[in-house]
Amino acid sequence: MHEGQVIRPSPGEKLTCIRSGLDGGAFVFDFELAAGAKGPPTHTHDEGDETIEVLEGEVVFRVSGEDRL
After folding, report:
1. Which of 30, 54, 59, 67 stands 20 to 30 A from 15 (CA)?
2. Is the pTM of this model over 0.85?
3. What is the CA radius of gyration of the chain?
4. Which residues are CB-contacts of 6 (< 8 A; sequence separation ≥ 6)?
């Protein structure tokens, strides 16, 4: 993705690219998830850590098969 690009991968999801990462740096994005939307499919990030900041509401993550708030 390029900086400023907005995509809507699924209903209730909006992803805005803040920093593309195409120059080798970190990919930084704003992800809006509507209440009740499922969000992205189960996946891993083996290349490094992922930082998530929830600004409103709550998100449940599944880690090693266990749901965590």
Report:
1. 67
2. no
3. 13
4. 14, 15, 16, 17
